[in-house]
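Tutorial handout. Part one gives the primary structure; part two gives the three-dimensional structure as tokens.
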Amino acid sequence: MLGMFETNNAVFSTTLFELFWSGQFQDAFVFFNKATEAVHKTKWWSISDLGNAFVSAVVSKNDIDAIFQYYPLPLEPWELPLVVRHQRLKEASDNKHVPGLLAQPKYINKALFAAAIGLEKGGKHFVETGTYCGTSCYLLAKCFETVTTIEAQPYLHESAQLLYQRAKLDNVTARLGNSAEVMAALNFNAPAESLVFFLDAHYSFGPTSQAFGTCPLITELHILFNRFNGATVIVDDMRCMTGQDGYPTINQILDIIPQGYVGVIQYDQLVLTKSSL
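Part two.
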């Protein structure tokens, strides 16, 4: 299980990623099925590799089971902290890794890191904006009572739906549309303190969408804090928040945060939790 979040075959991963991001979905599917002998022998899959290959299978109308057979089982709640700890230890022992508040983690899966924080805070319902390949919510399905993911790109949304249906994950809901509008319509029969929001809906080139703007974060935060004040909030990719190319500035983000929240930046993520004081 722990090997699912990294790969020993960098050439394989890079080639698959480049085919996927350039829209060569049929080529990506064929490459995955023909060029993975070494990975088959070691079982050292990257979950990102599987996600890229699965979406490629859906878009190119190939057999999704050819990819799905390699997916691991979703994480159990007790496994999630162990996976995060394992990846932290690997990162700490890597002499080439340069730590920093906005540095990209080499081993840690960012969505799993966010989910682990949410569980520590008593989270029971996980909401993600920016589904991408759907792997994060797939892995986290058993860790929360409900999991919701929102995607603006139609074929990424369709792929995620097929992934969750194939895995029979009835508590995971994939929604298509403007993340801010979908969040405004969400309802939970639960206190805000039991909600965890992972905000990652922004344009990242490749197959990601700009249908509703480059980065809807400011609108998302206004809606979130108005409706779910008290929830745990993790804002991903803080390195992008420069005020350029459609992204807000860090100060614009901080100005929205209501009184009573404490913010910490770790692994390029702003973690916002309600203070107990």
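Part three, for discussion. Residues 214 and 245 are 8 Å apart (CA to CA). The chain is about 40% helix and 15% strand.
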